[in-house]
């Protein structure tokens, strides 16, 4: 495994790292090395973000000292009672920072641990999960939510769970858990085979670890966080992976909504507690204060007063509700004698009530027949009191808003026909949770995801300083993705899903007809995202209506979609979602259709975290901007809050206005939905924006960094169909290729503006330039780069390689790393147009659908921007191009989609198809066919008997110009698309005098180092200046090609 020295740290990486991975690891280590230096890192899905994050973090931790191991002293900690506070959790090496790695879901954490297993790092670890994932008790595991928690607490308190009692015994006799990576399933298997409770076993293991894995809510929720007594927060490193929803999670965790229906249920439970206590006192004659009915009677009386107080609030406008500043809640509750002091007593009473109700449920039904459990609604009141009276202060209330809203009339018996109300206390500062971690003394907070853009708003929302920031490029090549804005549909009607237009029949029909076309073009899986469930329901309803049909055969839009793809619609109910996913997968496997189409909504389950790699998602259609309802009380008050905060800040300080927040929330939802398609470095797909507003420059700036350079605007729908069809036709011909290691590095290298590249003009520089070649360093070229984050990578070299090899052949030389920086800083090339431009984007003609597989030869066409009409100037000036004219003579009479095939000692070689004028020589170069060993053109026929004869016929021994032109053709034949572009880049760099000729020779030798390319390596010497023959001959000897 290669080792990279990054900022003085040796990072052991399991694979050859991409340039963007090294940059990412550099930023991670920078954040860890500086106390209090937080990082905000965006890296697209498929760039190896998780593995890079783990390796960089653990390498830094290992540089401080060895990882922890279980010792005899550790085992002795469990010799006493299992949860005794006197047990020592100290370890002589536990002063090292603990790494706390969190993600949104258990399934995401499982993937993270799988990545850890691929690395060479073996830290002492633990993973936390819920009882729902980890309980193995025969009856309790059937329960869910609070009912399960209450049942577990009851059985453990009574020591009636045999799995719970075996945890201490297991910890004393086994030391292997935590020394090797394990996930929740591994803990469950231990519990089932050896007896200990997986849930409490994880709670013991987390006390002494190097790295701890846990879901978000275990840290953000104050109650869960307090239960993790073993974590050493001081100097800890806190990592939030998949952090794109973190601000919303933090705000929701600090807020609450209390409907009157829930409050009524709490009152009933308090009354039940009173009745149970009275009955037990008569039977047991116990004076236990925990079973004093007076406590529960007081609780019930307070809740009744609260219910009455909410009902008496004057609401003048049903739309606006009743709104007050956040600190109003203390005045509101003080009328009920609920203060910080009384709140603590109420919380204790509620905790006792939850246990009492669980015991009563166990006694009445018994565990053998109990399957649903008891859900204690009173616990929601406890959580609300903890939020309101947190830390005993009131200062946090300035970030809140008090709101009472009326909802539709309920027919519930408890309301008896009354209008329902909801009391809400909304937190509008997600940074409160982050401030709590700062108070706990964490060293660094790292937030990372594939879709954090726009970064500024994210940082402002969390109210944290992030000195280290990164927006990483993707590792895919430009030809692997098609991104387009579709401002109008097939008939020219504008596509705009704004509130004004969304209900127009013409808009819904136009959108439907556009999707019909996409369903025909896109193979396999197609994802269509709507801004909301309302829009999705209205559109599908319209498309199914026969009265809205515009086709000649009177078939509906829905019928025409179903002819090519079987539809699946995302359900509103979470319980139905797994069935929808299974349905989609089954329809994808159905060979009678061309795939399946999944209709979903932004911010829904389909757009969040699901992996639609390869055939599951070849394209995603975004039908509009998913703006939240402006009239929604929470949205409206959030915007007002941010506007007020902006006015109160200094003019020089960065602020986030309500409108900016509103727009950026929609943009982040779009970025998240778009991320469903390209899932790994070999994947390919299309992203289709079916809303004219995406053509605006301000919308483009809010898209993910890696996506922006690829976006094009197509004023005419015909251009969309043409280019999209061509894209998938090429991909269908090429298949999904897994490039060699050298190729995987090349896909993140510089893609130069090829419309300015002329290979014929480049090699003369090699042949004629000696001492005149510039000594200018590449760093000076990067001075114009938009970002300088790569400029510090000169120190990043493989630690296990010599500096000599680094200068010549290493894949991670300063040259290549900085060249990658140059690529990503050049956002505009010949395929990128301004989103606001009305100029149509002209594409090449569509190639023949029968083009042979690119797996045999990876270049399916010759790019006219690389091989252009100046080929005659490539090697030396003068002389005609007789050999190429043999091919070009057919351009005026032959077709432009003829197939070229040939023979090879390594098997059949398919040379792909060539479009008319794609490769030209003064506009004369056409196409030819090599079939069964014969070169067929309109005017020339040759019959070489072996491949060597073919090569010799294509490499004439006459003038240098014709030899050079033929050599160029053979280079394109032998190299992959990515390698050929690198070859072009080397020639371009040499011509522009940004590289030394010695460096060019070394890079060329590396490109031509392969058994089937030795002929290129030898023949290239003919074009090397005599002065540099000794240097080039050294490369020939090194590669075994010397004569």
From TrEMBL:
Q: Which UniProt keywords apply?
A: 4Fe-4S, ATP-binding, DNA damage, DNA repair, DNA-binding, Helicase, Hydrolase, Iron, Iron-sulfur, Isomerase, Metal-binding, Nucleotide-binding, Nucleus
- Keyword Zinc belongs to the record: no
- Note down the stretches annotated as region Disordered: 71-95, 882-902, 930-963
Q: Report if keyword Iron is assigned.
A: yes
Q: Which residues form the signal peptide?
A: none
Q: Which SMART domains match?
A: DEXDc2 (SM00488), HELICc2 (SM00491)
- Superkingdom of the organism of origin: Eukaryota
Helicase ATP-binding domain residues: 7-294
Reactions that this protein is recorded to catalyse: ATP + H2O = ADP + phosphate + H(+)
Q: Where is the composition biased (Basic and acidic residues)?
A: 936-963
A molecular function (GO) term: 4 iron, 4 sulfur cluster binding
Give the matching CDD domains.
Answer: DEAHc_FancJ, SF2_C_XPD
A Gene Ontology CC term for this entry?
Answer: nucleus
Composition-biased stretches, type Polar residues, lie in 78-94
Localization (cell): Nucleus
Q: Name one GO biological process term.
A: telomeric loop disassembly
State where it is primarily located. Answer: nucleus
**Protein family per UniProt:** Belongs to the helicase family. RAD3/XPD subfamily.
Q: What is this protein called?
A: Regulator of telomere elongation helicase 1 homolog
Source species of the chain: Elaeis guineensis var. tenera (Oil palm)
Gene name on record? Answer: LOC105031928
């Amino acid at each position: 495994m290669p080792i990279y020295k990054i900022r003085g740290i040796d990072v052991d990486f399991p694979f050859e790292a991409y340039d963007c991975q090294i940059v990412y690891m550099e930023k991670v280590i920078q954040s860890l090395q500086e106390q209090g230096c937080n990082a905000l890192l965006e890296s697209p899905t498929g760039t190896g973000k998780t593995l890079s994050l783990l390796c960089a973090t653990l390498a830094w931790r290992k540089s401080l000292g060895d990882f922890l191991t279980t010792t005899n002293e550790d085992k002795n900690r469990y010799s006493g009672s299992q949860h005794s506070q006197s047990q020592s959790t100290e370890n002589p090496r536990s002063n090292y920072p603990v790494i706390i790695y969190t993600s949104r879901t258990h399934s995401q954490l499982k993937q993270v641990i799988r990545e850890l297993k691929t690395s060479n790092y073996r830290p002492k670890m633990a993973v936390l999960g819920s009882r729902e994932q980890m309980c193995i008790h025969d009856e309790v595991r059937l329960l869910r939510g609070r009912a399960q928690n209450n049942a577990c607490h009851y059985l453990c308190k009574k020591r009636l769970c045999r799995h719970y009692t075996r945890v201490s015994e297991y910890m004393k006799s086994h030391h292997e858990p935590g020394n090797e990576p394990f996930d929740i399933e591994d803990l469950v298997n231990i519990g089932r085979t050896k007896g200990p409770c997986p849930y409490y076993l994880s709670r013991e293991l987390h006390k002494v670890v190097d790295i701890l894995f846990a879901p978000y809510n275990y840290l953000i929720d104050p109650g869960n966080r307090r239960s993790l007594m073993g974590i050493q927060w001081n100097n800890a490193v806190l990592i939030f992976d998949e952090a794109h929803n973190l601000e919303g999670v933090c705000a929701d965790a600090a807020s609450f909504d209390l409907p009157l229906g829930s409050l009524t249920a709490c009152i009933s439970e308090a009354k039940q507690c009173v009745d149970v206590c009275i009955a037990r006192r008569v039977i047991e004659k116990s004076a236990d204060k925990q079973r004093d009915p007076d406590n529960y009677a007081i609780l019930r009386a307070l809740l009744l007063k609260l219910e009455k107080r909410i009902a008496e609030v004057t609401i003048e406008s049903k739309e606006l509700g009743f709104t007050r500043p956040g600190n109003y809640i203390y005045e509101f509750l003080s009328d009920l004698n609920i203060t910080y002091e009384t709140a603590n007593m109420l919380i204790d009473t509620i905790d006792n009530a939850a246990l009492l109700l669980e015991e009563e449920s166990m006694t009445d039904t018994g565990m053998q027949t109990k399957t649903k459990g008891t859900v204690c609604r009173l616990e929601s009141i406890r959580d609300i009191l903890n939020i309101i009276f947190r830390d005993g202060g009131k200062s946090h209330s300035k970030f809140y808003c008090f709101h009472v809203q009326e909802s539709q009339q309920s027919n519930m018996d408890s309301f008896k026909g009354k209008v329902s109300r909801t009391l809400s206390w909304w937190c509008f500062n997600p940074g409160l949770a982050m401030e709590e971690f700062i108070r706990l003394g964490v060293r660094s907070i790292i937030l990372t995801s594939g879709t954090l853009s726009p970064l500024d708003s994210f940082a402002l929302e969390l109210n944290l300083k992030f000195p280290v920031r990164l927006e990483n490029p993707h590792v895919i090549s430009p030809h692997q993705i098609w991104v387009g804005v579709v401002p109008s549909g097939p008939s020219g009607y504008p596509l705009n899903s704004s509130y004004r237009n969304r209900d127009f029949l013409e808009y819904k029909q136009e959108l439907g007809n556009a999707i019909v076309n996409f369903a025909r073009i896109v193979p396999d899986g197609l994802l269509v995202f709507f801004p909301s469930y309302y829009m999705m329901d209205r559109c599908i309803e319209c498309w199914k209506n026969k009265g809205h049909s515009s086709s000649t055969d009177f078939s509906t839009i829905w019928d025409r979609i179903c002819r090519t793809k079987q539809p699946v619609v995302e359900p509103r109910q979470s319980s139905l979602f797994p069935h929808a996913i299974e349905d989609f997968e089954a329809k994808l496997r159905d060979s009678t259709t061309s795939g399946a189409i999944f209709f979903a909504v932004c911010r829904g389950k389909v757009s969040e975290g699901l992996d639609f790699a390869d055939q599951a998602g070849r394209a995603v259609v975004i039908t509009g901007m998913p703006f939240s309802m402006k009239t929604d009380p929470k949205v409206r008050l959030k915007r007002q809050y941010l506007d007020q905060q902006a006015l109160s800040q200094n003019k020089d300080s960065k602020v986030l206005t309500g409108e900016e927040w509103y727009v950026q929330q929609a943009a982040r939802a779009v970025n998240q939905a778009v991320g469903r398609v390209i899932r790994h470095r070999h994947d390919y797909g299309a992203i289709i924006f079916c809303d004219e507003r995406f053509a605006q420059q301000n919308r483009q700036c809010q898209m993910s960094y890696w996506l922006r350079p690829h976006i094009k605007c197509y004023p005419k729908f015909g251009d969309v169909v043409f280019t999209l069809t061509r894209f998938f036709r090429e991909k269908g011909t090429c298949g999904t290729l897994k490039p060699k290691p050298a190729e995987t590095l090349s896909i993140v290298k510089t893609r130069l503006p090829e419309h300015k590249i002329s290979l014929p003009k480049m090699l003369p520089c090699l042949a004629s330039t000696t001492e005149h070649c510039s000594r200018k360093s590449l760093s000076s070229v990067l001075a114009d780069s938009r970002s300088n984050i790569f400029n510090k990578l000169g120190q990043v070299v493989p630690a296990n390689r010599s500096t000599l090899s680094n200068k010549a052949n290493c894949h991670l030389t300063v040259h290549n790393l900085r060249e990658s920086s140059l690529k990503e800083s050049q956002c505009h090339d010949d395929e990128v147009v301004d989103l606001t431009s009305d100029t149509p984007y002209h594409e090449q003609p569509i190639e023949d659908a029968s083009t042979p597989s690119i797996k045999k030869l990876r270049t399916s066409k010759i790019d006219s921007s690389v091989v252009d009409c100046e080929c005659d100037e490539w090697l030396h000036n003068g002389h005609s191009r007789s050999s190429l004219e043999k091919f070009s003579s057919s351009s005026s009479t032959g077709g432009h989609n003829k197939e070229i095939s040939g023979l090879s000692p390594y098997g059949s070689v398919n040379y792909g198809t060539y479009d008319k004028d794609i490769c030209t020589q003064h506009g004369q170069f056409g196409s030819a066919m090599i079939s069964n060993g014969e070169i067929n053109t309109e005017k020339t026929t040759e019959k070489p008997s072996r491949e060597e004869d073919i090569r010799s016929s294509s490499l004439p021994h006459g003038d240098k110009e014709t030899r050079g032109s033929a050599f160029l053709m053979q280079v394109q034949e032998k190299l992959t698309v990515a390698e050929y572009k690198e070859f072009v880049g080397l020639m371009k760099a040499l011509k522009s005098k940004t590289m030394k000729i010695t460096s060019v020779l070394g890079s060329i030798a590396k490109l031509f180092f392969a058994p089937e390319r030795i002929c290129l390596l030898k023949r290239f010497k003919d074009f090397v200046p005599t002065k540099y023959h000794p240097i080039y001959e050294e490369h020939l000897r090194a590669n075994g090609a010397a004569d």
